[in-house]
Design a protein that fits this description.
The complex is a heterodimer of chains A (191) and B (215). Helices cover 27% and strands 24% of the residues of chain A. Chain A has 191 residues and is α/β, with parallel strands linked by helices. Chain A folds into two domains: 145 residues, Beta Polymerase, domain 2 (2-Layer Sandwich); 37 residues, no CATH class. In chain A, the strands form two sheets. Chain A has a five-stranded mixed β-sheet with strand order 1-2-5-4-3, covered by helices on one side. Chain A has a two-stranded parallel sheet with strand order 6-7. The longest helix of chain A has 12 residues. Chain A is elongated. Chain A starts with a helix and ends with a helix. With 215 residues, chain B is an alpha/beta fold. In chain B, α2 runs antiparallel to α6 and α3 crosses α6. The termini of chain B are far apart. Classes of the chains: A alpha/beta (191), B alpha/beta (215). Bound molecules: iron/sulfur cluster. Iron/sulfur cluster binds next to α3 and α5 of chain B.
Chain lengths: 191, 215
């Protein structure tokens, strides 16, 4: 597998107008990623899949990451080539956190296997994948309106009875005027 | 009606067995509990182990796992009840004929267990259906499930059939339908069946704020 800098060079030369940035990772993970702009991620994906040097025929994982400080939701694709036995290439694309603006192009037309995983990212992070053939919630029920993996998600207020409260749960129970066994509170005070 | 124990054992020596009808009736019911065959998470694996040859639940007459609620009289809630699954569990419970019993197996079925702070996990199935026996553990060992079945058998053996003290299912006008929660925008609606669930009475007078104030 080529070094990430080389991959970037090839991509910039081959996909017209693509803006690509290398994002370093921890030395332990040793998986630097390519951050591609929203408009060209589909082109880059198709190129990686079809070019003889890469043949990235397998998208193993799609996930979302919430960065409230940057104001973005990031979608991460892990790509492998079964044909050339190489990978992963980590592809990232970002969208604003605002629910109206939070959309990226779907890569399901490129890798069919993305379908369920993009639905999961939509369900839990609220990222709309434009061009996805069947964008519905997959884990939560259809009537649900929140996106629970976002860091500003507020869980329902069901802290009225907490048998073993501690830390954040204790605070939430306190705010809700909840009930806890007296022993549990003594334990919490000792800490 | 109680029979004199001395007379009973004297008769027994001559091969005459006497037993009140109530006892015979309860004995036959407790010796053939048919559980509903369904599992929700890792606890179900222990339930399967209990039913298999090594732990052999058949010794207690409860090995006939039925794949339909209409033929089952025990629901073993074995595993994490997600909020998406909870309405289906209540629906299954409603479809079981009376008399029916429920064992809540494992930390998850009791309280949500390790996942109780999650957005997707119900904090205990007793919020929607009445539970007869709780088994703590994550997961409880097969011996614990067998113990729960024995506990339930003791409960069944103690069923009073005298008029006025009979359990609810002898009253033909009593409803056996428990409301099925609906999928809401943020949570299940309602989040608990208030008629059968409320925070434990012993603690209802102590809110956290009060305890903290006192200390
Ligand atoms: S109590 Fe433990 S073993 Fe049982 S379902 Fe929950 S996590 Fe799994």
């Amino acid at each position: 597998m080529e070094a990430i800098e080389k991959i970037k060079e090839v991509l910039v030369a081959s996909v017209q107008g693509a803006q690509i940035e290398i994002i370093a990772s921890t030395p332990a993970a040793a998986q630097p990623a390519l951050l591609v702009d929203r408009d060209h991620v589909a082109g880059v994906a198709r190129f990686l899949k079809e070019d003889d040097r890469f043949k990235m025929d397998f998208c193993s994982c799609v996930t979302g990451v919430d960065y409230p400080a940057l104001g973005v939701i990031e979608v991460v694709y892990h790509l492998y080539s079964v044909a050339l036995r190489q990978g992963p290439v980590v592809l990232k694309v970002r969208a604003p956190r605002d629910l109206q603006e939070c959309h990226v192009p779907s890569l399901t037309p490129v890798w069919r296997g993305c379908e369920f995983q993009e639905r999961e990212a939509y369900d839990l992070y609220g990222v709309k994948f434009t061009g996805h053939p069947d964008l519905r919630r997959i884990l939560m029920w259809d009537e649900f309106t929140d996106h629970p993996m976002r860091k500003d998600y507020v869980p329902p207020q069901d802290y009225e009875w907490e048998p073993t409260p501690h830390d954040a749960t204790l605070d939430r129970a306190k705010a809700a005027g909840g009930i806890v066994p007296p022993t549990a509170l003594e334990d919490a005070k000792k800490k | 009606m109680a029979i004199d124990p001395g007379l009973k054992s004297e008769l027994q020596k001559h091969g005459v067995f006497t037993i009140p009808f109530e006892e015979l009736y309860n004995w036959s019911r407790k010796s053939s509990i048919w559980p509903l065959q369904f599992g929700l998470a890792c606890c179900a694996i222990e339930m399967i182990a209990s039913a298999a040859s090594r732990y052999d639940l058949a010794r207690f007459g409860a090995e006939v796992f039925r794949a339909t609620p209409r033929q089952a009289d025990l629901m073993i809630v074995a595993g994490t009840v997600t909020k998406k699954m909870a309405p289906q569990v209540v629906r299954l419970w409603n479809q079981m004929p009376e008399p029916k019993y429920c064992i809540s197996m494992g930390a998850c079925a009791i309280s949500g267990g390790p996942f109780k702070d999650g957005y997707n996990v119900l904090k205990g199935i007793d919020r929607y259906i009445p539970v007869d026996v709780h088994i703590p553990g994550c997961p409880p060992r097969p011996e614990a499930l067998i113990h729960a079945i024995m506990t339930l058998q003791r409960k069944i053996a103690g069923t009073d059939l005298e008029a006025g003290r009979r359990p609810r299912w002898y009253d033909s006008s009593a409803t056996t339908d428990f409301p099925i929660p609906a999928f809401g925008e943020h949570d299940l609606v309602p989040p608990a069946n208030r008629e059968i669930w409320s925070p434990p009475k012993d603690y209802t007078d102590v809110t956290i704020a009060e305890v903290l104030k006192k200390s």
